[in-house]
Amino acid sequence: MNTASILLGPLVGGLTHQSANLWARCQGEAILYAWVSHKPDLSDATLAGQSLPLDGRTGFAGVVPLSNLQPETRYYYTLTTSKQSPAPGQYPSFTTFPPPGEKRSFTFLFGSCFRPTDENGGEAFAVIEEWRQKENFSFMLMIGDQIYADDWKHNGIGKIAVSKDDYRGVYAYTWTRPSLRRLFPNLPVFMTLDDHEVDDDWHWLDAERRWATIPFYNRWERILRGFKPQECHLPLHRVRDALQVYWEHQLMHAPPLISAPRLNYANQYEFKEGDSGSLAYKFTCGAAAFFVMDTRTMRIQRQTILGEGQWQALETWLMEVKDYPVKFLVTSSALLFDFFGDVTADRWSGFKQERDRLFYFLAREGIENVYIITGDLHSGHAISASLYGPNQQAIPIWEFCASPFEQKTNWLSKLLFIPVSSGAVKNEKLHFVKKACNFGVVRVQFDETHQKPVVHFTLIYKDKTSGQWLATEPIG
Ligand SMILES: [Fe+2]
Q1: Separation of 390 CA from ligand 1 center, angstroms?
Q2: Which of 28, 79, 158, 295 is exposed most, by the fewest CB atoms within 10 A?
Q3: How many independent structural domains does the chain possess?
Q4: 3-class state of residue 176 by DSSP
Q5: What are the angstrom distances between the C-alpha of 47 and each of 51, 75, 435, 446, 472?
Q6: How far is the CA of 321 from the centre of ligand 1 (A)?
Q7: Does residue 284 surpass a pLDDT of 80?
Q8: Residue 279 has pLDDT above 60, yes or no
Q9: Which CATH number does the domain housing residue 406 bear?
Q10: Which sign, positive or negative, has the C-alpha torsion 361, 364, 369, 371?
């Protein structure tokens, strides 16, 4: 086999206290070889594993799973496409997590919505990379719109993505922006999708998940601009292609799905009514538990955002981790942020009953120390509230939002905010809204005297007037 070179990556996904998935996408057919060492120059690296042969069926993307790693240990690594050991040099590293349940302080980053303005887009990632060299970040959560498949002006392919090759082309362009390319090898990631991995504000129309659509104004705009018919509509096969390519780039290296959707004969998601599978997954970092929701592929217009199967998985998980000192619910759509004139109702505000199901479940079961981590809004915010169940015991809850890494910002968000209307939620307080490109920093700090950690959120944002990246006061 000819060995093609690496196009995207390497990056570290699915990190645990004892394992990691090293991911890359190559230019053509290849096998990935993973070299791992405790030394930064890899001078004593050993061959720790290899991928399956990468071919066109996965867009030449693949992973090398590493196992039997030691907890809280730094590993230097590289991926090669030949079996020859790497030349000495400076190599990236990752540090394995503490074992599940171990109370350790840590810091993670999060953000969403990356639409590079031009070839040099990705200033936020350059800021993160510079900072990362001075401070230890355990990982970064990327909460959706990791590409803008439908943004023909900025997606690198000059048209709306309609085929697997188009979607792969958008990833190839977006993820090779120099700053993101430099950051990826050095910061383990956990990803989930929002809408633009497929198309703008898309959703299913029917419970059988045969018919998908985009909003009427998008359709009309595209028709009026003379776009090709396949760019103006969203047939089932395009959703399947987009999600296959999502899997190749964002899910293949993630922790295992809690209950994967069924695949069809072509190895694509089948999407049949009654299939309880979703793209949700969970992981732990020491004594912090994370549930990463799939708010997109189960979403059926005016019916459900998560689907019953994912609800069962979420409620089971919440009971499993009830005694964990801190839980993070990761959702690409904001939960506690409603606003006037939200015509698209593309967030949890469009599914109020279902949102109440979560609030009442947390209140009824007395599940404390829950933090919602979200994005999507093109502005950052921090919200606190109290949940009240039948026994009227108040349970604090927080929502931290960081969005966008780089995209147009939403100047209306501050003016139009309204507290959610729910019998379970009281004392909702918006602590700040920041309309600027940004990312979030969450510090989880345990000390010997307290069972519960202190959890602080800081938004790092690009100040419009000075062009400097500034930090909000820590909150939480
Ligand atoms: Fe976005």
Answers
A1: 37
A2: 158
A3: 2
A4: coil
A5: 12, 13, 47, 37, 44
A6: 30
A7: yes
A8: yes
A9: 3.60.21.70
A10: positive
